[in-house]
Design brief:
Strand order of the largest sheet: 2-1-5-3-4
Strand content: 5-15%
Structural class: alpha/beta
Number of helices: 13
CATH architecture of the largest domain: Orthogonal Bundle
Number of strands: 9
Length: about 300
């Protein structure tokens, strides 16, 4: 006879909700996402859950399992004591849409505000050259799968609700990667301090603990970024050297300008590029000319 496990799953939406209890049969290698799918298939077909690859690559199935932010597809049922209920809830740092699905669009809004990578001009032979140590230093930041578990566990975002002041650990990684890139030409230090709030992080390392890719978020990204910002903006020796040398080598970055045009203000032809292309094709023009000639006759 197969073993059984008890799941306590949060069911509800932005108006409110409660926990519902479900029993599922377990099997070797079963993960929490398998158990959620079993509940969907057999007991609650209206249960909402976001998932995609089921291989720990897409970052879609983020949730809180027994109070800890995890990827459900990478959390084995055997990890929990037998006979004890397993509680599954949505990420608490973001607004609930339904059941285990949350609205993480704030993260994409923050990403749009960050000035993108701007490389220097290539060398005379048309190539760029970097030292291997510079590549190794930022390589781990590229492992981020944007599961936003670090954002969810960050107490500045989650408990103090400083979303307007602090960009969160995920984007501290991104900013650190840009700042450490040997080819980048933008100076984002003032933005990192004023707009993205690096000073709000007080180095609890909770984001590092929950990262499924084992990125050293705090030690390898946030702390070095804090040091770089402090050195650049507050070090009197560096200030004096800049005055003597004639200013910083990098161009000060600014926030990207918001789009000025809306879809409603855009001509219909531009809103439908396929139709626009058809209108501009030679065959389409000939048909228009033929129609005009026939109308004249």
């Amino acid at each position: 006879m197969a073993d059984k496990a008890t799941l306590r799953i949060y069911r509800g939406d932005k108006e409110g909700g409660d926990f519902k209890t479900y029993e599922v049969e377990t099997y070797p290698g079963m993960v929490v996402l398998d158990a959620i799918h079993d509940v969907q298939a057999r007991q609650a077909p209206d249960l909402a859950v976001r998932w995609n690859c089921k291989a720990g690559r897409c970052g879609s199935c983020s949730a809180e399992v027994n109070g800890k932010p995890r990827l459900m597809c990478m959390t084995r049922m055997s990890h929990f004591p037998a006979g004890e209920p397993i509680t599954v809830t949505p990420m608490r740092a973001f607004p609930i849409i339904k059941d285990l699905v949350t609205d993480v669009s704030w993260n994409y809004d923050v990403a749009k505000k960050i000035p993108p990578f701007k490389p220097k001009a290539p060398e005379a032979d048309g190539t760029w050259r970097m030292q291997q140590e510079d590549i190794d230093r930022i390589q781990e930041f590229r492992k981020c799968i944007e599961c936003f578990l670090c954002q969810n566990t960050c107490h500045v975002v989650r408990d103090h609700e400083k979303k307007e002041e602090f960009a969160g650990p995920r984007f501290m990684i991104y900013l650190a990667g840009l700042d450490m890139h040997p080819l980048d030409t933008l100076d984002r230090h003032k933005l990192v301090k004023d707009e993205f709030g690096v000073g709000y992080c007080n180095i609890t390392r909770c984001c590092t603990e929950v990262c499924p890719e084992s990125i050293g978020i705090t030690d390898n990204a946030i702390i070095p970024l804090k040091e770089r910002v402090a050195d650049d903006l507050y070090d009197p020796v560096r200030w004096l050297l800049r005055k003597v040398a004639g200013g910083p080598k990098k161009t000060p970055a600014t926030l990207p300008k918001p789009p000025t045009k809306t879809l409603a203000a855009t001509p219909a032809a531009l809103r439908d590029p396929i139709k626009q292309t058809m209108r501009e094709s030679p065959s389409a023009k000939r048909k228009v000319e033929e129609k005009a000639e026939s109308d004249e006759q």
